[in-house]
Design a protein that fits this description.
The chain is α+β, with helices and mostly antiparallel strands. Helices cover 30% and strands 23% of the residues. Helix 1 (3-18) runs antiparallel to helix 2 and helix 5 packs across helix 7. The longest helix has 21 residues, at 112-132.
């Protein structure tokens, strides 16, 4: 486990303890402990941490947090930290061929090849992120660094640090919370984890660092104080958009797939791997949905910005999160051609339990109970034709329940509190995924019960005169039986006709492009029956 991830696990535990009515003095002590450990990582003092092979991908989140809580630093530490926040004085600089960057360096430890490649990587990242994708350019810094170009400083950073982006302590010109920024990267990446760059892992690490840190500078043109987890998710996502073939972030994916119960808002290595959340959005809706998120981030923070962006496209955050949870199971050997583009390279999802007999009841131990925007997974390799899963848990959270029917074209079904699943005899994963509380440390215990049925028609049939419908509620399809040939009319709850069916004795209605809700099923011979569609 990396020093950063170990450290953030300490933070999680101390905050959980703090929720048990710690005094203000005790809370202050815990905050001070967190900041001290963050400071140690920033200055490269790893003596307090266990050794690990995974470098810290980006120091930007640590710098932001320490900057916000600098009262916990000693006077000498604050002086050292202010040095890190300052722009270095290096003897030489060049302007990149595009004219967007001034790159500062010391020829004593940066050769001409590395300097040229650095300029090329940043120029290409600008071309994709600003010119092609249309994100705001970084805020000009006046004459800081010598002119208004975006400054990049090539330094001998402490071991294990890819780079960092630091906001200048001056406001930007926009009416929102923008600011100029500068970037620090290292002068070599020889000892970093391998990646897939055909030119070599050192150059691959430089490429993704350029794309990652440039996007941090761009983010500060929207909101320099945006929530850290979202900044990191977005920057890792962007590095994969710019240099899709490098796949450096694969080195961090286990922090997500091995710990799915952690929140997307978690501040640890988990947030680098959580880039798959934005990958889900872009694979479904294109990069423009991420651009909309940052447009909303000028006025809203974190999940509120994501929700506002989805609302503008007539999408719902809880629904999209539930589908994302389903996608995360369709990886590794379970990958198909209809979900993540890179799913075969993603690790398998951690499973809490494998079900061999039904009914089955599961309650996670406290440490593995999902946080809001996290999930648990249960696997049912040999289910009966029908399953029903129900959740009992706290009413303060939105309980998404997700079913993944596994095949070469896996199907993801979602519901709230309960779900009916027609398995077709295929393996099924059921996920429990609370959402709606924007705190990564709240833990939500629950009880999940899964029932199996060979035939659900008799027990779960609702009838009215000559119509029978089952199952009800339903997720994928509603079976309709009539006693005599008839047209079947289906209305929304507000009286709008949404479908007309011709049934001789039975019909399987598969609603397309219809939201969850109550639908009225009737024939000319009978009063309407209510059917509940759960997506």
């Amino acid at each position: 486990m990396s020093p950063y991830f170990s450290f953030m696990r300490i933070i999680l535990l101390t905050i959980l303890i703090a929720e048990l009515s710690l005094s203000a003095g005790q809370q202050r002590f815990l905050d001070s402990l967190r900041v001290q450990k963050e400071f140690a990582l920033i200055v490269g003092d790893y003596s307090k941490f266990a050794s690990d092979t995974k470098p810290i991908k980006c120091l930007t989140p640590l710098i932001i947090d320490v900057r916000r809580n600098s009262q916990f630093l000693t006077r000498s530490q604050l002086s050292r930290f202010m040095e890190i926040l300052s722009r270095p004085a290096l003897p030489r600089s060049i302007v990149s061929p595009s004219g967007h960057f001034r790159i500062h360096y010391d020829p004593a430890y940066v050769d001409s090849e590395y300097l040229a490649r650095c300029a090329s990587c940043f120029d290409y990242a600008w071309h994709v992120e600003v010119d092609s994708f249309g994100f705001l350019p970084p805020v000009p810094d006046g004459t800081l660094g010598g002119d208004s170009l975006l400054d990049v400083y090539i330094l001998r950073l402490p071991a294990g640090q890819y780079g960092m982006t630091i906001a200048d302590d001056i406001p930007g010109p926009a009416p929102w919370n923008d600011a100029p920024a500068f970037i620090k990267i290292r002068n070599e990446y020889d000892s970093f984890p391998p990646n897939d760059d055909p030119e070599g892992s050192e150059w691959g690490a430089l490429k993704v660092t350029a794309a990652h840190e440039l996007f941090h500078a761009i983010q500060m043109a929207y909101d320099k104080d945006e929530e850290v987890w979202m900044l990191e998710i977005a920057s890792v996502w962007m590095e994969d958009m710019v240099y899709n073939y490098v796949n450096d972030y694969y080195n961090y994916l286990n922090y997500f797939f091995d710990y799915p119960w952690l929140s997307l808002l978690e501040l640890s290595m988990h947030m680098y791997a959580s880039a798959v959340f934005f990958r889900y959005f872009s694979d479904n809706y294109g990069y423009t949905i991420i651009k909309r998120i940052f447009e909303q981030a000028r006025y809203f923070d974190g999940m509120y910005a994501i929700s506002a962006a989805l609302d503008s496209q007539h999408l719902n955050l809880n629904n999209e999160f539930a589908k994302f949870v389903g996608w995360n199971f369709i990886t590794d050997t379970l990958a198909d051609s209809f979900h993540y583009e890179e799913a075969t390279s993603y690790p398998p999802m951690k499973v809490e339990a494998t079900v061999v007999s039904l009914p089955y009841t599961y309650s996670p131990r406290y440490s593995r109970s999902p946080r809001s925007w996290g999930a648990n997974y249960i696997y049912i390799p040999s289910p009966p034709p029908y399953l029903k899963a129900t959740i009992s848990g706290a009413t303060t959270v939105f309980w998404n329940i997700v079913a993944v029917i596994l095949s070469d074209s896996s199907n993801v079904l979602t519901g709230v509190d309960s779900i009916w699943i027609s398995t077709h005899g295929l393996p099924v994963a059921v996920a429990v995924a609370p959402s709606g509380i924007n705190n990564p440390y709240n833990v939500f215990p629950y009880t999940l019960t899964i029932y199996g049925y060979e035939d659900i028609e008799e027990k779960y049939t609702f009838s009215s005169n000559d119509i029978k419908i089952f199952p009800n509620p339903f997720n994928e399809a509603l079976n309709i039986k009539v006693t005599s040939p008839s047209k079947i009319y289906i209305y929304s709850v507000d009286g709008k006709l949404v479908d007309v069916l011709s049934a001789i004795d039975s019909y399987r209605w598969v609603p397309e492009n219809l939201p969850s809700g109550i639908y009225l099923i009737k024939s000319i011979y009978s009063p309407p029956l209510k059917a509940v569609l759960l997506r």
